[in-house]
Amino acid sequence: MKRNRRAGVEDLWTKTVRDEHGNQQTVPSARHGIGMRWRARYVDDRGQEHSKAFPARPMRRSGWTARLRRSCRGRTSHRGTPS
Hints:
Layout: E1 6-11, E2 14-18, E3 24-28, E4 38-43, E5 49-54, H1 57-61, H2 64-74
Antiparallel strand pairs: 1-4, 2-3, 4-5
């Protein structure tokens, strides 16, 4: 199965649910307060997913997703073999 390229940042301490009226609400997840809060993820050109968790939101705003992508690319050549 081929996965489409994408990237994003997730808050692992909250989740979005719908109430009985169909309205969306953000509520604490089962992981709330445990471990790292944020996760940056992306799927590369080969359909392989890469991710990294981090504790603070300011890192999210400083281009962490782009840094994660660059660091993962640096570990493999353009053909996907270890460099």
